[in-house]
Structure to design on (69 residues):
């Protein structure tokens, strides 16, 4: 993980709706992962889409653990 490629994004938990800043590692390219909400500890599914041309973040989607992203 390269610290200079960690981007902070303001998001809301899909369970408790609390806002928090999420660190996203775009050096991995497009990927799916899970993070726990820092407030309610629920598992949040993350889908990170990175442009293969620019290497920049194209989309960040959050969902409940049982949703299909």
């Amino acid at each position: 993980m390269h610290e200079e490629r960690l981007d902070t994004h303001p998001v809301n938990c899909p369970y408790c709706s609390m806002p928090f800043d999420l660190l996203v590692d775009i050096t991995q390219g497009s990927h799916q992962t899970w993070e726990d909400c820092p407030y309610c500890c629920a598992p949040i599914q993350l889908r990170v889409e990175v442009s293969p041309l620019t290497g920049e973040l194209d989309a960040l989607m959050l969902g409940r653990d049982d949703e299909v992203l």
